[in-house]
Write a structure and sequence with these properties.
There is one protein chain. The chain is of the alpha+beta class and 406 residues long. It folds into 2 domains: 229 residues, DD-peptidase/beta-lactamase superfamily (Beta-lactamase), CATH 3.40.710.10; 121 residues, DD-peptidase/beta-lactamase superfamily (Beta-lactamase). The strands form 3 sheets. A 7-stranded antiparallel beta sheet has the order 2-1-12-11-10-9-8, sandwiched between helices. A 3-stranded antiparallel beta sheet has the order 3-7-4. It has a two-stranded antiparallel ribbon with strand order 5-6. The longest helix has 29 residues.
């Protein structure tokens, strides 16, 4: 009896191994290497980037990944797929997902107003903002200042870094300052891409739960999805090259930026733009959305109705909570995308639910031709992994839409 059982187990594992080898053979025969280095390195060299990394998700699984280049220009330390890259505004997608989870749990409502969410600062709030809802914020329809005017009037990047107290207190002070200002338009009428809007959405979440946004992100998302490399702010340790350094153009020359307190956007606007993680861990989060868009189960256990809200523009236009929604032939129609940069890093994701496909690309350079390089990488990988489909030009002008202020 035991011999028969052992034989069955052995046969089972032989089948699993055979399937695994079969998949690798299939990739080899189709020219789809599971290591993306041969695709990425020529593009990195062409655009003279410090480093570039990418992941391809096919049939809901990570089909290929790769990273090439240096953690720091002038060093000899190479990047790996386990290194942390900054996601910039792609943080917004994660913050929106956190809010969707809180809505499902009955802690928040999509239509909660700023007057309800911030009763203690309602008197100082501009009256027009009082009826602005969480949905307005997530769709960039709240008429808050555009991203190039992220800091409250009369305040600077350093002013926001030097706000007193822990991040949760700093963010509430930020909300109070920004909500005093004159609205850019009548709420609900105009699309204005705003870091302030997503920051305030994150503040609503943490005020409702009486828990810092960073803690909510770790406990509800990163831990659940086993995103062990996920964190906030600049990557790595001061004085070390233990993670990719960020790179910035100064007087026309690319300079590495040492990690430290002032090496990223201030925590005051964290919910809009400060998450970092490895490209592989980011892919875990994107797979959750890919499955959710197809009505399939995911580790976050969100309902299909919640993903529907997260993937659908609420006020016309093409911006859903944390996603730009558009059409591409290579994606079989509707696709979702987002880009992010803090001026020193770059990240982009494209997701095609109908093809059960996504591609993610990151770099530790934020300006110059990095958006063009990542766009070329995306297009090349689409053509390679979705054969006989017209990739076209994936990003278009999206880089202009999603550029961060810094």
């Amino acid at each position: 009896m035991r011999t028969q059982r052992n034989t069955t187990i052995i046969i089972f594992f032989m089948v699993v191994l055979s399937v695994g080898r079969g998949t690798e053979i299939l990739y080899a025969r189709s020219g789809r290497s599971k290591n993306l280095y041969p695709v990425l390195e020529p593009i990195r060299k062409k655009y003279n980037l410090p480093a570039i990394a990418a992941v391809v998700i096919l049939n809901g699984r990570t089909a290929a990944s790769g990273a090439t280049g240096l953690r720091k220009v002038g060093s000899d330390v190479k990047v790996t797929c386990d290194d942390k890259f900054h996601l910039g505004s792609c943080t917004k997608t994660i913050t929106a997902t956190l809010i969707g989870m809180l809505v499902e749990r009955g802690k928040l409502r999509w239509d909660i107003t700023l007057a309800e969410a911030f009763p203690n600062i309602m008197e100082s709030m501009h009256p027009v903002y009082r009826n602005v809802t969480l949905q307005h914020l997530l769709a960039h329809r709240a008429s808050l200042p555009p991203s190039k005017q992220t800091w409250p009037k009369g305040k600077s990047f350093m002013d926001m870094h030097n706000l007193p107290g822990p991040p949760m207190q700093q963010r509430l002070a930020y909300a109070e300052m920004i909500l005093r200002q004159e609205p850019e338009a009548k709420p609900g009428t105009k699309y204005i891409y705003s870091n302030a809007g997503y920051t305030i959405a994150g503040i609503i979440a943490e005020q409702t739960m009486d828990t810092p946004w960073e803690t909510l992100m770790k406990e509800m998302l990163f831990n659940t999805l086993h995103m062990k490399t996920a964190g906030f702010g600049a990557m790595g340790s001061l004085g070390k090259v233990d993670q990719p350094w960020q790179h910035k153009f100064i007087d026309g020359k690319l300079h590495p930026i040492e990690p430290g307190r002032f090496s990223d956007n201030p925590p005051a606007i964290g919910p809009s733009s400060t998450v970092h993680c490895s490209i592989k861990d980011w892919a875990k989060f994107i797979r959750t959305h890919l499955n959710g868009a197809r009505g399939e189960a995911s580790l976050l256990k969100l309902k299909p109705e919640t993903f529907q809200v997260l993937h659908t523009p609420a006020f016309g236009g093409n911006y859903a909570p944390g996603w730009e929604v558009t059409e591409r032939d290579w994606g079989g129609g509707r696709v979702l995308t987002h880009q992010g940069t803090n001026g020193m890093n770059f990240a982009v994701v494209w997701m095609a639910p109908k093809r059960y496909f996504a591609v993610l690309v990151t770099s530790n350079q934020g300006k110059g031709e990095v958006s063009k390089a990542c766009d070329e990488a995306v297009g090349t990988l689409i053509k390679k992994f979705l054969p006989n489909k017209n990739a076209g030009k994936p990003a278009g002008k999206a880089g202009e839409i999603f550029e961060q202020s810094n």
